[in-house]
Amino acid sequence: NVAKSKEEKNFIVKYAGHKWEMTFTTLVTFGGAAFASFPLFYSTSFGGAYWLWFAILFCFVIQAVSFEFRDDAGNIFGAKTYETFLFINGALGTFLLGVAVATFFSGGAFTVNKVALTDASSPVISKWANGWHGLDALANPMNLLLGVVIFTCARTLGLLYLCTKEDIGEFKEKCRKRVYITAPIFVLTFVAFVLWLFLSKGLSVDPSTGVIAVEPYKYLHNMLQVWPLALIFLTGVVFLLMGIGRHLLNKGLSKNFYIVGGGVVLAVFALLLCAGYNNTAFLPSTIDIQDSLTLYNASSSLFTLKVMAIVSIAIPFVIAYIVWAWRKLR
């Protein structure tokens, strides 16, 4: 809602329109990688909480369609319709993605029975225990809080990105001022979520027996006991706060997006590792904690994990290609 005129909306489409493929492809790639490396997680989350994932996928689909057809000749729905779709994706899509990611910590209502794989009539290992199939995640305040964090984070980064452009005229000043609203909300909600997470209980896994037990302050312990995680997380937080602080002081508008973006990547990466490292259940079951998913019981075969590890070596080259391609498109 920052852009009011058609020209301002065209600026957003101009600089963000050719990047939608990355967001959609990332989601699809995440699903494929999850299936290969952790098939039980894939079948439990994507196969059980499918209404939540379908809602996210729908938001990404209408985003792609809107960027392609908003100003096309013969558009019978009008540009306003596709702009509404883009608003829905930007608001609801990012919020729901945060809700889905929060289930790594809050869990879901599922059960796991690997013996069921031998049942020819219903060879389903994991089943959702209610008819909401993922929408029940919206009833958890912790999930909703992370949804707000991701929404305000995406909005802040989008505004900071537009502030790096020199050819958008007075619209750049509007974006710069709007960061003064979105950035503090993002920081406050992020801090609230991290405090909530570190003060909450987690599920600890005994690596020798596989028995899962409740452990107070589990995620805080993970950060303290695995120092590289804490280092990555703190580095990300420092970059994040430094970039936002520089912007609020009206310094380095062309660089703050990259500083904050780098900080977000590091902080989120550390939190995701915190969800499963140090013998932690990364998808708790709210029905029976012994059915919770861990790196031990949800992973694929050793051969598949080795292949995925080798493939992961190519990630820096893929990122370099994306950067090169974006610069050429720009």
Write the layout of secondary structure elements.
Elements lengths: L5 H11 L3 H18 L1 H10 L1 H20 L9 H28 L3 E3 L13 E3 L12 H22 L8 H29 L1 E5 L6 E5 L1 H8 L1 H22 L7 H21 L25 H11 L2 H15 L1
Question: If you had to describe this structure to a student in words, what would you say it looks like?
Answer:
This protein is mostly helical and 330 residues long. It is built from 12 helices and 4 strands, in the order αααααββααββααααα. It has helices at 6-16, 20-37, 39-48, 50-69, 79-106, 141-162, 171-199, 218-225, 227-248, 256-276, 302-312, 315-329, and strands at 110-112, 126-128, 201-205, 212-216. A two-stranded antiparallel sheet has the order 1-2. It has a two-stranded antiparallel sheet with strand order 3-4. The longest helix is centred in the middle third of the chain and has 29 residues, at 171-199. The chain is globular. The two termini are 24 Å apart. The mean pLDDT is 88.
Provide a brief overview of the structure:
By secondary structure, the chain is mainly alpha-helical.
Into which percentage range does the β-strand content fall? under 5%
Total of helices: 12
Strand order of the largest sheet: 1-2
Order of helices and strands: HHHHHEEHHEEHHHHH
- Radius of gyration, whole Å: 21 Å
What do the pLDDT scores average to?
Answer: 88
Described by strand count, sense and barrel closure, the largest sheet is:
2 strands, antiparallel
In the predicted model, the low-confidence regions spanning at least 5 consecutive residues are none
Amino- and carboxy-terminal Cα gap: 24 Å
Quantity of strands, as a count:
4
- What structural class do helix, strand and pairing data support? mainly alpha
What is the approximate shape? globular
- In helices, the fraction of residues equals 55-70%
